[in-house]
């Protein structure tokens, strides 16, 4: 009986291997792969796709083995929109509370952050927010999410999106 159990455990750990490289950028925004890694499941292949569903929103979708794993986005909201309003648009932010003077809101499966100093001539009177949503199951880590959203937001602030 123990031999069979040992064989089953051995098989299940081999199924848990990641055979792909974790992306070092989220659609052109450099991010340390070690910050993204906790939110990606095991699998064989990864693909990264950039989508712009509306002019005020850019999404970077990471799929693992053809399934949604993580979406990082940059979203222009009208000035005066609260971080809670932005978070309400992201279902993976259940039970998250604002922190850092209402500039950041995160949970184990998602986060929203206001980008500090950023303006867009095409979208006057708008504020840029970043968001991350985790769709991979059993990939929840609030502490790691705070680090990821902070790093992603800092890089977005330095990017062409804010020039």
Shape by Cα distribution: globular
Question: What is the share of helical residues?
Answer: 25-40%
| Total domain modules | 1
Please state roughly what percent of the residues sit in beta strands, choosing from under 5%, 5-15%, 15-25%, 25-35%, 35-45% or over 45%: 25-35%
Task: Evaluate the radius of gyration.
Answer: 18 Å
Spell out the helices and strands N to C: HEEHEEEHEEEEH
Low-pLDDT residue intervals, each spanning 5 or more residues: 1-15
Write up this protein.
The chain is an alpha+beta fold and 163 residues long. It is built from 4 helices and 9 strands. It has one domain (20-162). The chain has helices at 2-15, 33-36, 83-88, 142-158, and strands at residues 25-26, 29-30, 46-54, 57-64, 67-78, 97-99, 104-106, 110-114, 126-134. The strands form 2 sheets. Strands 3-4-5-9-8-7-6 form a 7-stranded antiparallel beta sheet. The longest helix has 17 residues, at 142-158. It is globular and about 45 Å long. The N and C termini lie far apart (64 Å). The model is unreliable at 1-15 (pLDDT under 50).
Overview in brief:
It is built from four helices and nine strands; from the N terminus they run H-E-E-H-E-E-E-H-E-E-E-E-H. The chain has helices at 2-15, 33-36, 83-88, 142-158, and strands spanning 25-26, 29-30, 46-54, 57-64, 67-78, 97-99, 104-106, 110-114, 126-134. The protein starts with a helix and ends in a 5-residue tail after the last helix.
